[in-house]
Amino acid sequence: MKFIHFFLATFLTLCYWPFFTASANAINNDTLIDLVKVDKSERKMYLLYQDKVIKEYSIALGDKPEGHKQQEGDEKTPEGSYTLDYIKEDSAYYRSMHISYPSQLDRDKADKLGIDPGGYIMVHGQKNMSGELSAFKKKYDWTDGCIAISNDEMDEFIALVSTGTPIHIQW
User: Fold this and answer.
1) What is the pTM of this model?
2) Rounded to whole angstroms, what are the CA distances from 92 to 8, 125, 138, 156?
3) For 63-83, what is each residue's pLDDT tens digit?
4) Which of 56, 84, 101, 146 could covalently link to 78 via disulfide, CB atoms 3.0 to 4.6 Å apart?
5) Who contacts 64 (Cβ-Cβ below 8 Å, separation ≥6)?
6) What's residue 164's pLDDT?
């Protein structure tokens, strides 16, 4: 009887192991997140792998989150498709990953209006020295157009998301 249990357990482990490791890798392997989606109206950010949500975060946005960022100082979070293009460790905020705003289209629109499109939009943690307030600070919009999560979540985000990953931001 013990042999049958051992055989059955071994057989099931060998047959189903690829399924267990695939989902574990999706959470632990930073090269597998293939899209970050931000739903500004819901204040949510989703990490996806092959159209499946792997991780979800509650977020804080710019002070005036509705609508697409058009110019420096409008406190709006941009909308559209961009790329997470580099990590910044030395700023006023606990760790951050840069969003490739403004795109060429954003620059062209701003040029036609004679305005500065702004830039330096990030996914970032909390302002340095205020990490203990992150649960409170995620309940309202306070950034100048960035996407904010807690410091612990930012560590996880950077571990899971590689530079070069697309980010799609929508209302």
Assistant:
1) 0.77
2) 56, 10, 17, 19
3) 888 889 989 989 999 999 999
4) 101
5) 74, 75, 76, 141
6) 96
